[in-house]
Fold:
Amino acid sequence: MKQIITTVAVALLITACNIQDKKNNNKNTEKMETKTALSNKEKAVALITSLETGNKATIAYINPTNYKQHNLAVADGLEGFGEVLHHAPEGGFKAKVVRSFQDGDYSITHTKYDFFGPKVGFDIFKFKDGQIVEHWDNFSDLASANPSGHTQIDGVIKVTDLEKTEANKALVKDFVNTVLINGEFNKLPNYFDGDNYIQHNSMIGDGLSGFGKAIEEMAKQGIIMTFEKSHIILGEGNFVLSVTEGTFAGKPTSFYDLFRIENGKIAEHWDTIETILSEADRKNNNGKFNF
Structure:
C-alpha cells in the first residue's frame, strides 16, 4: 500500500512538472512572439536596411497588389520597387537609418544612403493591416559639415516626450504657416529659445543668426526660396516632420523639414530639398505629395 501511494505521488509530481514546463514553454513562446512582432516603424527600418543587406524577406512588408509609389522616378507598384533593386550598382546600395518614428498609419525614416550617389533622405511609409500601401521620399546630396560643424544626419536620435506629440505638431504647423508660408519673420522669436537652435542644413550655421545670414547671402546671389503649401505634418514625441511645396531658385521644389522640439520651442532642424521631377520624366502619375 505504501509503495502504491509513493508511486501515485511520483506520478502526480511528474504530471505537475510537465504542466509547469508547458506553462513555461507557453510563456517563452509568448515572449518570443512579442519580440518578433515588429511595429510598423520597425518594418520600415528593416525594409530600408534590406537595400544594403539584401534581405529579401522584407518584401513581405509591402502589399503586393496595392502599393502606390510617390517617388516620381520609380514606377508604381511592387514591380517598380523591384526594378530599382535590379539596377543596384556593383557592391549594392548602402542605407543606414539614423532616426525613425511613427504617427498613426505613417512611419518615417531619416537615412544616410549611397543610392546612385551619396545622399541623405526621408522616407514616409503608409501602412494598412500591417503592410505598406504607399510611399513618399525626399533626397538631398550628401554634403560636408555646415558652418557650425554639424552634418546632415548627426544630433539627437532618441524619441522622447510622447505625451507632447500633439502640442509639438501644433507648434510646427503654426511655424510653417506663419513664418515659412506667410513670411511673418518678425514672429520668428516666438518659436525659438533665443539663439539656441542647432542647424543641420549643410549651408546654414546654428541659431536664428545663422539662418538670417544664410537668407542674406541667398538674396545677394538672387536665390529665392518660397514655401507655398503645407501638405502634411507628422510627429512622434519630440520629432515633427513637415512636408511642404514651393520653389527654390525658380524650380518647383519639395521641402522635408524635421524639427526637434524641446520645452515648447524648436531646438534642432534637419532637412532635404529636392527639385520636383517634370511631368515628362515621371514614371508614375501619383504626384509627389497627395497624402
